[in-house]
Amino acid sequence: MEKENIAVGLDIGTTKIVAMIGKKNEYGKLEILGVGKSKSLGVARGVVNNITQTIQSIQQAIHDAEINSGYKIKDVVVGIAGQHIRSIQHTDYISRTNPEEVIGGADIQLLIDQVNKLAMLPGEEIIHVLPQEFKIDGQSEIKEPIGMYGGRLESSFHVVVGQASSIRNVGRCIQSSGIELSGLTLEPLASSDAVLSQEEKEAGVALIDIGGGTTDLAIFKDGIIRHTAVIPFGGNVISDDIKEGCSIIEKQAELLKVKFGSAWPGENKDNEIVSIPGLRGREPKEISLKNLSKIIHARVVEIIEQVFTEIKAYGHEDPRKKLIAGIVLTGGGAQLKHIKQLVEYITGMDTRIGYPNEHLAGDSDEEFSSPLYATAVGLVMNSIENKTQSAVRKEETPKPKPTAYRTPIVESYEDMRVDEEEERIVEDLKKEESTGDKIKRSFFDRYVDKIKDFLDNAE
């Protein structure tokens, strides 16, 4: 019997950590087998700032996903975000030694490797090198150069850059949680896989993913990624403003935002008031919903204007760069009432809310088609593409001695090392790769290998 291709995505967010296990059903749709969710401790604005707390949160999410699904997780594809992410446009070329031979995958790989050697700012590393259009001997707008003749092969690239230490910290947290890191994906790219259709990517679309700590932007045109950006504001700053403006505690501010908040103050009547219980016997507080919406409105306008500045930087007013499909909003922040209307008002562009339900199997739990899970669904889809066997049924694994579930504290770097059995599995997988696959391997895969080497050799 052929082994199931079980995929696992891990979304390490500022507000929550989600571990999602899924597989493709016979109709090619994604069937969710189990989800684990935990409060994200130790992550601020998409960046790990407390290793021990992050490990505990990851372990909780992994543990819950395993219990819900009946599968044991071996490795995960993780999303990378944070304010340290930036993207640049770069053009590079190679002169081929033999123009009489047709261009092959090796030539494109050579060009990508050349871009990977670009000098970056201190402490920065290239995460993603995404070829856009190619030029062969001056002939431009070539999307697929393989099989063509030419001496000079040139391409424009979308290069995503991030802080090396932040990426290594994520890798360290994963391995310390007792699982392997099988791939890294830029979070806006994962979200776009989950909520955008190919038609939208062709027509031109801006995906805005409003998370807790960051707002991610990905712009597509002609089916190619054109621009990415991470803005270091999200839903948490809205809650902070409500907390300060209404003099209430964080929990109450978050509840007020979710249950009664609106991004459009004109929708609330002056006499609409919500009463909040006072602390330790104090008098209840009465808060006007109109004032609440004014606070939310001011902050959402600021976030949208920052994103719109990035869309303008891409040059969407140029007729050739026009985003015909407008804007798609996703992430937890997209659930805020009237945010769609506000975005349309500020940008003048068509807007819709993006739900990751297009790729989900029909019998999936409705909860998972919420914009909240867009990144997690995208990461699972990415894991399926890698064809990794990321989880196995519990009955296939030897049963451990019954012990109470606890979060192990990492004593030393030695404790963080991957055990030899898992290393052997990774080696076997590498050997099984065909030559064609090697050419196709993205820089990300090799980057993951680099991280593994770095982590394994850490003293």
Automatic annotation (TrEMBL):
SUPFAM superfamilies the record matches: Actin-like ATPase domain
Keyword Plastid annotated: no
Location of the SHS2 domain: 7-195
Sorted UniProt keywords: Cell cycle, Cell division, Cell membrane, Membrane
Location in the cell: Cell membrane
Gene3D superfamilies: 3.30.1490.110, 3.30.420.40
Main location, first listed in the record: membrane
GO terms for biological process, alphabetical: FtsZ-dependent cytokinesis
Topology relative to the membrane: Peripheral membrane protein
Pfam families named among the record's database cross-references: FtsA, SHS2_FTSA
Assigned GO CC terms: cell division site; cytoplasmic side of plasma membrane
Self-association and partners: Self-interacts. Interacts with FtsZ.
Family indicated by similarity: Belongs to the FtsA/MreB family.
Function: Cell division protein that is involved in the assembly of the Z ring. May serve as a membrane anchor for the Z ring.
Name of the protein this chain belongs to: Cell division protein FtsA
Gene giving rise to this polypeptide: ftsA
